[in-house]
Amino acid sequence: MFSKILIANRGEIALRIIRACKEMGVATVAVFSTADENSLHVSLADESICIGPAAVSDSYLNISAILSAAVLTGAEAIHPGYGLLSENPKFARLCTQCGIAFVGPNWEIIQKMGDKDQARATMAAAGVPIVPGTDILNDPDEAHQRADEIGYPLLVKARSGGGGKGIRLVERSENFLNEYSLARQEAQNAFNDDGVYLEKFLTRVKHIEIQLLCDQHQHVVALGERECSIQRKNQKLLEESPSPSLTPEIRTAMMDVSRQAALAIGYENAGTIEFLMDMHGHFYFMEMNTRLQVEHPITEMVTGVDIVKWQIRIAAGLPLTFSQQDVYIHGHAIECRINAENPLLDFRPNCGTIEFLHVPGGPWVRFDTLLYQGYSIPPYYDSMVGKLIVHSKTRELTIRKMKAALCELVIEGIDHTSQVQLDILSHPLFIKGDYYTDFMENEFGKPLSE
């Protein structure tokens, strides 16, 4: 086991990793930008080192500064968390070349699955159903012809990156060339890669993902699914596990094909395979996230498995001590992301000083956050300031518990999204479990008003 780990991240996920390490008896190193000098992860780690100014490109994406910090402090491993460098194959490769363990899959797998076109081909070869589409298309005329063959609506999707960038919905043939050009331009600006492909746009679908743990000894375990269909502009807002829509047969099929795919590509560490599922229960591969997911706590709640600790153990070469037959789903869990955004102003991000903070409590209530009273939120980073997670015996009880926890949550000094989460939880379609990825657009598409 490692004696010291550097966390190449910030905010609540850095705190989550630090807490796991403390419970494992592993020393921690926090890195921080000048804007994060007063952040909690800096004070809770055993050591901390500044890696640059506020801009992400000069600090949390500064590979040489992070690797230098690891060497300087004697860290044996680096945990990248999620976002930032977590799916950067160059960073993972350089960690290995520097003799530092990367807490995640090897760089070749990250590179292969990060290329959406190659990922589709890889999954298809492994027997995973994929959405009808094309390979990379660089010629606009050829792309237009293929689009007409696939039929509309369809998506033009960037080969690289994620987070909804480089994705354009095309509903009519006459709009294709313009949207195709815009998608390539956005992909180039965001990922320095203008490669795009086409994919049939499935309507009335659910976003379901399977959590995997894979050790270095060819043991693969699926920890059930997460329902992630509550989204706004391709960004998840609320997740739950298990999904209210999956039959036992579909759940088993999804987990089986995910485990089969992970074994076929030689995957190691934690990973998530994401699917789109239509109203008839047919599911199709969407992408694989080769990292820890923001919503991992709900899986931890229903399985009792600490995913972060197992990430670290696997990276250290330890085998999984349980098999698929040992995995049981107990009860129900929901996660609500709390963002520093103003829903009345089209979810405009905002900053400010936390004047008062009250965190909900009680059994099976968890609030993962970077906030504390007196903390000033810097304007340079993601707007998510916390994740509220609850667990109970049934979905109905879990919804009730989450609503109570949201009502108890008090964050004064900033605008935030807890009221929107309450509105979602109270909506008849959500209560029935009869919601799809277009839920927010259809039910909350207009600007909210008081």
Characterise the protein shown here.
The chain has 450 residues and is an alpha+beta fold. It has three domains: 4-103, 3-Layer(aba) Sandwich (Rossmann fold), CATH 3.40.50.20; 132-200, ATP-grasp fold, A domain (Dna Ligase, domain 1, 2-Layer Sandwich), CATH 3.30.1490.20; 206-443, D-amino Acid Aminotransferase, Chain A, domain 1 (2-Layer Sandwich). It is built from 15 helices and 22 strands. The protein has helices at residues 11-24, 40-44, 63-73, 89-97, 107-114, 116-125, 140-150, 176-191, 248-265, 296-303, 307-315, 395-408, 418-426, 428-432, 439-443; strands spanning 4-7, 27-33, 47-52, 77-79, 101-102, 154-158, 167-170, 196-200, 206-214, 220-232, 235-241, 269-277, 283-289, 332-339, 341-342, 348-349, 352-353, 356-358, 365-369, 376-377, 384-392, 410-412. The chain has an eight-stranded antiparallel sheet, sandwiched between helices. Strands 3-2-1-4-5 form a five-stranded parallel sheet. β10 and β11 form a beta hairpin. The longest helix has 18 residues, at 248-265. The radius of gyration is 21 Å and the shape is globular.
